[in-house]
Design brief:
about 25% strand
Length: about 140
């Protein structure tokens, strides 16, 4: 697992795009004690079809860039949160949060009670409804 860092406002975050940083900064400012620690840009998943392909991909620098990346994993002392930050989030963001969570659980990197989360600036009623049905926490 990537190194845990303190949950605090920073000047830039590994792997986050500028629009994502704006949303994350606003969340931290509004919720300064939401989490104790975080990890950013967490690579997950197996992009290689087999062990030989993995070795080849690693040799040419393609392995890590082919993995999926979780924006933030956060810990509040009792729970783990798998956070996808997405401006104007839709169904794709819900799928990402769910897929990341399952890959991390399968790899034993988070526990089975980890919470998939989408943090966004705008959410439609239908996306909220789908998130509720899928068990994805929406934060706006």
């Amino acid at each position: 697992m990537e190194a845990k860092r303190p949950y605090k406002l920073e000047h830039g975050y590994p792997g986050l795009r500028l629009r994502d940083e704006v949303i994350w900064d606003a969340f931290i400012l509004a919720n300064p004690s939401a989490f104790q620690s975080v990890a950013y840009d967490v690579h997950v998943g197996e992009p290689a079809a087999n062990a030989q392909e993995r070795v080849r991909m690693m040799a040419i620098g393609a392995y890590e860039v082919s993995q999926w990346c979780v924006d933030v994993i956060a810990w509040d002392g009792s729970k783990e949160y798998i956070i996808e930050i997405k401006p104007n989030a839709g169904a794709g963001a819900l799928g990402q949060a769910l897929a990341y969570r399952e890959l991390l659980v399968e790899a034993g990197r988070v526990g089975p009670t980890a919470v998939p989360v989408v943090l966004t600036d705008v959410i439609s009623p239908i996306t909220e409804q789908a998130a509720r049905l899928l068990g994805v926490l929406i934060l706006v």
